[in-house]
Amino acid sequence: MFQNPLLLIIDTQLGFFTKPKETLYVAEETLKKIKSLLTKARSAKIPVIFIQHDGLKGGSLDPAGPGWVIHPLIMPISGEQIIRKKTPSAFVGTSLDADLKKKSIKTLVIVGLQTEFCVDSTVRHASYLDYKVILAKDAHSTFDSSILKAPQIIAHHNMILGDDFAELKNESEIEFP
To answer: Residue 174: which of 137, 132, 140, 120 has the closest Cα?
Structure first.
């Protein structure tokens, strides 16, 4: 059982799913798992916050471009908050921490993109701020890098983040009160 939980969905924007030269690892499966958690949270009346990254002009997450919008499969509904950010951590330069405190949130269930950047930074920052963090270990993803394949990056970050910063759970294991 989680104490005052919130589902935090990081950077699930179209630009990650439509990159012409790169393919997001298990993109459809990751979206389905995020959608499942979103459905569970909504059914249990658990608050949800979407994080939306403001990328560089002309880039895949440019706020003026089509890739900036949140994927339609998991589009926010009325009453769900969207927080825009410009750095990897969803806490830096945003109202996230203050908003969580106003809602008396103690536990964050975190999902989204990209594993080694915004997911990693936000999980660590949340831990430093004394939130209980549940990382859905099968509901975050990334791209292959020049030295590691995406599954290796995800496994490595699950191992590192699960050691000190978050409790790891599969999406199917996460139930909201």
So the answer is: 137
- Nearest by Cα to 41 from 111, 90, 130: 111
- For 148-171, what is the mean pLDDT? 97
pTM exceeds cut of 0.85? yes
Local confidence band at 103 (pLDDT 50, 70, 90 cut-offs) = very high
Domain count, the chain: 1
**Who has greater pLDDT, 97 or 177?**
97
Q: How far is CA 104 from CA 18, 85, 174, in A?
A: 37, 22, 20
Question: Residue 64 sits in which domain range?
Answer: 5-173
Q: Convert the pLDDT of each residue in 34-50 to its tens digit.
A: 999 999 999 999 999 99
What CATH number does residue 141 fall under? Answer: 3.40.50.850
* Contact call for residues 40 and 176 (beta carbons, < 8 A): yes
Taking the chain, what is the end-to-end CA distance rounded to the nearest angstrom? Answer: 7
Rounded Cα distance, 159 and 166, in Å: 10
Q: At what angle do helices 150-164 and 120-128 cross, to 10 degrees?
A: 0
